Amino acid sequence: MSTTLPLFWDLSSASKKERVDASVKLISALEQFQINHVPPQEGSDTEDGGGDALDLLNSPDVSYSIRRLVRGLASPRESSRLGFSVALTELLSRINTVTCTQVVSLISDSTKKQGSMTGQEERDVLFARLFGLTAVIRSGLLVRQTPLPSSGSSNTQVSSVESYEEVLKKLIEIGEAKSWLRESAWWTVGLAIDAVQDSSVPWKAKALGTTFEYLFSKDKESFWSSEKVAMTLKLQPLWPNHDWDSALAPVFKGPNIFSAGNLAPLGRILKESALDDEEASNPGSGSWNPQIHFVWDMLFDRLLPTSDSKQPPQGSFGEFFRIVVDESLFSSTASAERKYWGFQVFKKALTRVSADQLPMLFTKNLMRSWINHLSKSDRYLHKISLDVAKHIQSFVQENPTLGFPLILQLTGINGSQEFDKLTRTKTVESILTVMDNEGIKNYIVSLLNQVNSKDADEDATALNSRRAWIADQFAALIRNGSVPKSDEWIQVILDWYVVNGLYSIRKKSGSSSIHALRALPSPPFTEEFQTHCCTRLLSCLADLTSQTIVVKKGDKTYKETAVASDGEFWISKVLSTLARLDKDTKHVDPLAPVDEETQALLNGVGKIHEKLGKVSTEKKEVARGFELVLSSLVLQCRCGEENSVESLESCLSAASRMFASKKSSKKKGQQSALPADDGPEPIDILVDLLIGYLENASAYTRSVANEAFSHVTGAAQESTIDLILTQLERRNPSELAEAQEEVMDVSGEEEDESSSEASDDDGSLSEESDGEEAQEIRNKIIDLLKNSGMDDVEEDESNESDEESEELMDDDQMMAIDGHLAEIFRSRKDEQRSKKGVDAQREATHFKNRVLDLIDTFVKREPQSSLNIRLILPLIDLVTKSGMDEKQLSDKAKGILKNRLAKSKDVPTKARRDEVETILREIHQRVRKSHSADNLSVLSQSSLYLCRVLVQLNEDDCVVRIYQESLDDYISRKGSQANLSFFQDFVRRFPALGSRFRDPVLAASSNAVNSYRRCQAFQLLNVILSQHGKKDDQAITSSFQKSLQTTVLDLANGAIDDQSSLSASQLKDPLKVVLLCIRQVQKSDSPPKKAGIWDPAAWNALQVRLAACARFKSSSPLLNMCRQVESIASQLKPQKRNGDGGKRKAEEVVDVTDYSKKSDRKKQRKTKS
């Protein structure tokens, strides 16, 4: 026992691992004790059930452990009940020297209730009895047939029907004692029934009869609960010949509780409400449990048996779910707790039903409650409703084929077409993302079938709303990038938009390849819906133009944007559909017939398309860009967009000039070398059209402009870049507003001239359109009239006639208020003009953002183009001169400069040296005047980019000269706004140029405007020398070493003589440079250059002077650096071989060191004294 006692404490541990480990060790030890135990030859009756009966056949450790484990079940410690019950179950299953009666008697004696117990103690006792009886059943002791080992007892039977009856009786008593324990107690009864049924005990039939007598007694025939329904479902297959009609009466009619007549009372029982129509609940139903009852698993096992089950389905699942769940748990009078149960039942049933049974779950009341509680976060059942939505999403991920039936239910008759919008979730959208292509096609077909279906009570407004929703659903499928795309169903959607947005169907064609022609709309589509379809067509093409897919041609695969899987533009596919529909005059009529002039223009586009398909490989990419723009303009013409015909003419002319055939140019002879006209370049015309697309600001034109420009970047010229940069120039917002106002004034004057007779009506309409502003002006005028003595002006306006109202004011009064009226109208006009200016400025900013997208595309596609040089200064202007309301514009320009240009691996190779140098000098001029650290960073990155270009052109001297001029200005002029990081970035980025930069830096330090700038010069020298490596071609020259030594010695001696205001910390910078330089000289492989440059005596003298100076003698780092320089200089100096010169020099160094230590000790003694 001494070895097992510590293990009982670990059985109560909160850690599951510790509890399991303690149980394993305990059972293993007890098994060994029992093996070594020798039972006595004579014994008493084992059926006595007393405490001494356990000791007859068990070792003392085992009998003690059984009693200790049983008593531990009532412990109030946190996890003792779990640990002790597991250990007890395992122990009873391992030993065969105890009987069921003994253990049950021990459990009963240890868990007796006493009158002096508190509520908590009574609860612990009940739980202990429940866990103990469960351990008896789980261990198999309840139905064990193995007799006890040989003993003096006359009865060796381990289990009996009497012991089973005792266990059953005590479990029912536990359920009756506390209603909240009834479910657990009856669940344990079910375990006992299963144990008896699975065993081969001879008293099996008698045990089942005893169970039936206890559960279905006469005095409880009218009382039914969920537990009693569960036991009925468990006993019916085990006892099929029993008279279940009388057993279930009068609550149920017949033995089948799944029959249609029994579903209503079954629903009331499972809802835990009274069987009659009263609202009172079952007596003893207890408090509400958030977990659903175990009977639901048994019900679904009967209604929805698994594939490996041998039992056929019982009853109709649809009727069961409608009556028992929807009309009971989700009824209008059901409480929130019952609805919570209902949602859990729904989740449990969802994983069991098949695709055919899935619609039976989404019943009317359930969907209403789910949508209501899911729509707002403050609803009582919002959390469980959201959990149901997530459960559905995960369910579809595991079963993608069920996504389509689920969407039909969510958007069907019991759901809502706007399910995601109403519930503020993305349930439908997330289901679509995990569906396969077959499911998406089925969903599209179902939507198409709903276009013409009309309910009997549905009016025209509801039908049009549903059709508009279907059109929006199609657009959402294309817009969602997570939905798996297929050319087949995308083409179906685009064809549907084209047919219904640009044509009217005269006659359906069932065999047409265009799916939209297979059904005649009834009733016909309205003009508003046709316009909606046309708009959706352009928005879908905008989304498709921005999406990238993998195109496979032969054995090669590559990514391309705006095309289908066959490499053809989606816009071109739409134009192909238009061409086919134009020829099919039998079935469709165009809503807007094309006139002859436009048709001729479209024919010309067709010819140029054929020519673009035959261009050479080097021009293929540019031809694709022209093809995309021409196709987009043709579609805009067919959709009735303004100015699309003029734009198409310009683009067609530019394409003809851009891709003129060589044969025609040869016929012209010498004139072919001359330009056809003095007009702009074809590429400039195209880019100007694209800029107009960006100004239009629709998603369709913006996506086409960006995609088309990415194809034609290789053909861009200087004039093209200048055209783009012109759009980024700053304009005064007032000028934009005045220009817009002039246009509005001209249109207003023309309208006034054409409709002068209706001025009164126009005035009233304008007053209504002004809304609050007009009412505010009216109130000001009324207040002005009241202040003029007309207090009853409002009453006079409503009561007096016009003639009388004219007499309210004389001429003097009118003149007095005339100025005030003019001021009121003037202030209103200024407010409107100010608002227009703000709007114009905002639109200009958005437009510039779109233009910057073109620049970003150009830099990304053409990193080696010399035209990138022209972009730098305008982008810098955007970064440095943009206001606070243009921060997005500034950030985007900064990103292009710092991320696209500065980090580009390639630089222009054919740039003009003069142009690059001019821009670099301009940047350095701005560096000297910039007051912002962020702007300096951008300028530095831009300068480094231009330096890379110049280095590529072998213009290293130019780079060093420009940086030297800026450094001289920074060091010698206090007003310079440059910083040290600007120059450090340069020397770190170009170490080779930095080695040529050290002499100018050292020279500039002598001309420093103050000590701070001088120290910064030496800090820069430190960075330059740190970049110097052993493999550097340019070693540190002798002249630089001499200059550095002279400069630093003069600087240090001057500081000692108070000729400069250098502090000790500032003097460290030049000494660090000297120490770094001399160390590198020491490591170099050029001995002749080492000798005779560094003077150890001078550094020794400097060290002595520093130690004697009151300002620097306390600075140990300065003194140590001087000693190190002196030591290395001594090693570099040629040594004399005769005598002990080298030894004496070393001794001198040691003496200096010792001297400093002695002086430090003297100082410490003085301070102590």
TrEMBL record:
Residues 1159-1169 have a biased composition (Basic residues). It holds the Pfam family DNA_pol_phi. GO terms for biological process: regulation of DNA-templated transcription. GO terms for cellular component: nucleolus. Coiled coil: none annotated. Residues 1137-1158 have a biased composition (Basic and acidic residues). Residues 734-811, 1129-1169 are annotated as: Disordered. It is found in: Nucleus. GO terms for molecular function: rDNA binding. Residues 738-774, 791-811 have a biased composition (Acidic residues). Transmembrane segments: none annotated. Keywords: Nucleus. The keyword Nucleus applies. The keyword Nucleus applies. Belongs to the MYBBP1A family. This is DNA polymerase V. The lineage of its organism: Eukaryota, Fungi, Dikarya, Basidiomycota, Agaricomycotina.
